[in-house]
Design a protein that fits this description.
The complex is a heterodimer of chains A (468) and B (118). Chain A is α+β, with helices and mostly antiparallel strands. Chain A folds into 2 domains: 3-315 and 438-462, no CATH class; 319-436, Ribosomal protein S6/Translation elongation factor EF1B (Alpha-Beta Plaits), CATH 3.30.70.60. Chain A is 28% helix and 27% strand. Chain A has an 11-stranded mixed β-sheet with strand order 12-13-9-8-1-2-3-7-4-19-20, sandwiched between helices. Chain A is globular. Residues 457-468 of chain A have low confidence and may be disordered. With 118 residues, chain B is α+β, with helices and mostly antiparallel strands. Chain B has one domain. Chain B contains 4 helices and 6 strands; from the N terminus they run βββααββααβ. A 4-stranded antiparallel β-sheet of chain B has the order 2-3-5-4. In chain B, strands 1-6 form a two-stranded antiparallel ribbon. In chain B, strand 4 and strand 5 form a beta hairpin. Chain B is elongated. The mean pLDDT of chain B is 91. Chain B: It holds the Pfam family AtuA_ferredoxin. Chain B: It comes from Vreelandella boliviensis LC1. Chain B: Residues 17-115 form the AtuA-like ferredoxin-fold domain.
Chain lengths: 468, 118
C-alpha cells in the first residue's frame, strides 16, 4: 500500500483553506498519510527572528492558527501526521499554539514534537564555515547578525515520528525533508539507500511549493490553460515502498497535474540536475522521466541518488540598512512624457538632496520594469504609446533611514511640484535584511527531537531526547 | 470587439517565432543565482532549442543585468534543459531594488527570444 503525502501550504502567505480538500481526500483514501505545511522562506525566518526580539511570544508562522484550525481535528482523528516548518524562529511557541488549539478542539491528548538544532547563531563564529559557491557577500559582523540557521535533514523529524508524535514542528529544515521524514518512518528505508532517499526527497521537492505542481504558477492562457485556478487542488503524492511516485490532487478541485506541470516543478530551483544537493542525499535527475497515467495522475521515474554532501547549507541573516519605495501614476494623453519628465525631475533633485552613495532605481511601469537593470538600460531604448497608463516607481536603499525617507519623500513631493496630473502616490520604507549562504560541517550540527509538554500556566518547557 | 491574440499560431519551419510559441519555462532563484527550466511543447522542437537557445545567447539576453555566467544542462528525457545564470538578480530577493527580486518574471524574458524552428 502506498503512503500519501499531502501539501497544505507551499509558502508563508499561501492559501489557508487549501489543506481542507487535501485532508478530505486523505481521509477518503484510508491509507497511511501525512500533511505537510512548508511556510518558511529565506526571508521569512529573518522576519521571525526580528519579530521575536520585540515579542518573545512571536517568531513562528503568523498564520499558524488559521492554517491548522480547519484540519487539525480531522488529522488527529484519522491518524494523519502533520509536519511543518511553521516553528520558524520559535518552534516552542508554535507548539504551545498547537497544544492550545488541539485542547479547544477536544484533543488535549495531542502529541507534539519539536525539532532542535537548526539555530547555530550562538556558535557561528567558532565554526569552520565555507562560503556557498554562488555567494558574493562577506560574513557580517556580530552586531549586524540576526540569525544563522542550518538546513537540517529528515533524521530528527523521523525521530520525532518514532516518538509517536501527531504533529512535528520544526524551524529551518530542507523543505523536502518535511516530506521525506514520514516516508523514512513508514517504510523504514535505510539512510544509505540513496535511490529511495532520492525518490522520497523528490516527492517532497515536487510537493513543497503546494499548487506549483498541480496547476499553480503555470497558467498561460491559450498556451497552458488551467481549469479552476481559483480552487486549485494542492498536491497529493503517492509513494510506494520501492520509491516510485505518482503525483495527483484531491477530487473535485481545480488545477491540473500534467507532464508539463510536473516537469516545471521538477527543476524548480534546481541547478545541476545530476547533482541536486539536499542534506540527506544528492539527487540525480538526469535520467528522470514523467508519464501521464490518467487525468491528474503523473508518474515520475528514473530518479537516482548518491551519497549526501559533506556539508550542510546555512542561511545567515543580518541587518541590511534601509530600503524604500514610492510610486506615482500618470494616465491619458501624453502620459508617458509626463512620467518621463517626473523621472528626470527626481534624478535632478536626488543629486543635491541625497548623498552620492544612495542607491536608487527608477522604473516606469507600463514601459519597462521587472526585466530591466538597475541602471534602466532597457528603459532607454524601449518604446510605448504616448497615451497610456504609466506608473513611476522609485526604489532606494541606504544604511541610514533618513536618506531613504528623504528620497521617497522627494517622489511624494511630485504631487504638487512635478508634472501635470500625477496621482495615486504610495510610499513605504523599512529595515532590510540581507541573507548569505554558508556551508557548515555535518559534525558541527546537532539535530534532535523532543516531545513538547504544554504547561497550563503558560510556562514552556520541553523534555529533551538526544538524537541517537 | 477588441481581443488580444493569445492563441498558439501554427509554426512554419524556418520562419522566426518567439520561443513562447514552442516552449514553456519556469524560473527559480537562490541568492544571486537564477535557474530557468525550459521545455519544448512538442519533443520534435527539442533539437531547435538545443541548437538555438545556447549559453551564449542566454548570456547575451541577460547581459544588461550583469549576468556573469550561464551553464546549460540538457535533459533529453524531458525534452527540456535547465539554465543556471549567475549574478543576474541585482541583489536577489533580499538585496534587489527591482520590483521582482526573485526574478520570477524572467522565464518570460527567455520565452521572448526569437528562434527559427527547423
Amino acid at each position: 500500500m502506498s503512503f500519501l503525502l499531502g501539501s497544505g501550504a507551499g509558502f508563508s502567505g499561501d492559501r489557508t483553506d487549501a489543506a481542507v480538500a487535501v485532508v478530505a481526500e486523505l481521509i477518503k483514501r484510508q491509507q497511511p498519510s501525512a500533511l505537510v505545511f512548508e511556510t518558511l522562506g529565506e526571508r521569512t525566518l529573518a522576519a521571525a527572528h526580528r519579530a521575536m526580539r520585540d515579542d518573545p511570544e512571536s517568531g513562528f508562522e503568523p498564520l499558524l492558527d488559521e492554517l491548522l484550525a480547519p484540519v487539525l481535528r480531522d488529522c488527529l482523528d484519522h491518524g494523519i501526521k502533520i509536519l511543518g516548518n511553521f516553528g520558524a524562529a520559535n518552534p516552542g511557541g508554535a507548539c504551545q499554539v498547537i497544544a492550545e488549539l488541539a485542547t479547544q478542539l477536544g484533543r488535549a491528548d495531542v502529541r507534539i514534537a519539536q525539532v532542535h538544532g537548526d539555530d547555530i547563531r550562538q556558535q557561528l563564529h567558532s565554526l569552520d564555515l565555507q562560503r556557498w559557491e554562488a555567494e558574493r557577500l562577506d560574513m557580517p559582523s556580530d552586531d549586524a547578525l540576526i540569525s544563522a540557521n542550518v538546513y537540517l535533514g529528515a533524521k530528527a523529524l523521523a525521530e520525532a515520528l518514532a516518538m509517536q508524535a501527531d504533529v512535528v514542528v520544526t524551524g529551518r529544515v530542507a523543505d523536502p525533508a518535511l516530506f521525506l521524514a514520514p516516508l523514512m518512518h513508514h517504510f523504514d528505508w535505510r539512510w544509505d539507500d540513496w535511490d529511495r532517499l532520492a525518490c522520497g526527497m523528490m516527492a517532497g521537492h515536487l510537493a513543497e511549493c503546494g499548487a506549483q505542481v498541480s496547476g499553480g504558477y503555470f497558467a498561460d492562457p491559450g498556451f497552458k490553460d488551467v481549469p479552476g485556478l481559483a480552487t486549485v487542488g494542492y498536491p497529493i503524492i503517492e509513494v510506494e515502498q520501492d520509491g516510485s511516485l505518482i503525483i495527483t490532487k484531491p477530487a473535485n478541485t481545480g488545477g491540473c497535474v500534467t507532464e508539463q506541470t510536473v516537469k516545471e516543478q521538477l527543476l524548480y530551483e534546481v541547478h545541476d540536475p545530476a547533482n541536486y544537493l539536499t542534506p540527506d542525499v544528492t539527487v540525480d535527475l538526469s535520467h528522470a522521466e514523467v508519464r501521464q497515467l490518467a487525468p491528474n495522475r503523473v508518474a515520475v521515474t528514473g530518479i537516482r541518488g548518491k551519497p549526501a554532501p559533506e556539508r550542510l547549507k546555512t542561511t545567515v541573516c543580518y541587518e541590511g540598512g534601509w530600503q524604500g519605495e514610492a510610486e506615482i501614476s500618470y494616465a491619458g494623453p501624453n502620459a508617458l512624457a509626463r512620467a518621463q519628465l517626473a523621472a528626470q525631475v527626481l534624478r535632478e533633485r536626488l543629486v543635491f538632496r541625497a548623498p552620492a552613495e544612495l542607491r536608487t532605481r527608477l522604473d516606469i511601469i507600463g514601459l519597462t520594469s521587472v526585466f530591466d537593470s538597475d541602471s534602466g538600460e532597457l528603459q532607454r531604448s524601449a518604446s510605448a504609446p504616448a497615451n497610456g497608463d504609466y506608473r513611476l516607481r522609485l526604489a532606494a536603499e541606504h544604511s541610514e533611514r533618513r536618506w531613504v525617507a528623504r528620497a521617497t519623500q522627494e517622489l511624494l513631493a511630485l504631487y504638487c511640484a512635478g508634472p501635470a496630473g500625477g496621482g495615486g502616490v504610495r510610499r513605504q520604507f523599512q529595515r532590510r535584511v540581507f541573507t548569505a549562504s554558508y556551508l557548515v560541517k555535518r559534525s558541527d550540527v546537532h539535530a534532535h527531537a523532543s516531545l513538547f509538554e504544554s504547561s497550563p500556566l503558560g510556562e514552556r518547557r520541553s523534555e529533551r531526547y538526544v538524537a541517537s | 470587439m477588441l481581443q488580444a491574440e493569445h492563441t498558439q499560431t501554427p509554426v512554419h519551419p524556418h520562419s522566426p517565432v518567439t520561443l513562447h510559441q514552442l516552449a514553456h519555462a519556469r524560473a527559480g532563484d537562490k541568492g544571486e543565482r537564477l535557474n530557468l527550466a525550459l521545455f519544448a511543447y512538442d519533443p520534435d522542437h527539442y533539437t531547435t532549442l538545443l541548437e538555438q537557445v545556447t549559453e551564449e545567447r542566454v548570456l547575451a539576453l541577460f547581459a544588461h543585468r550583469g549576468a556573469s555566467r550561464v551553464r546549460r544542462y540538457p535533459l533529453p528525457n524531458l525534452a527540456g534543459m535547465n539554465f543556471v545564470i549567475d549574478d543576474v538578480l541585482q541583489g536577489g530577493v533580499n538585496g534587489a531594488l527591482n520590483l521582482d527580486g526573485h526574478g520570477k518574471t524572467l522565464s518570460f524574458l527567455l520565452l521572448n527570444m526569437e528562434v527559427n524552428p527547423s
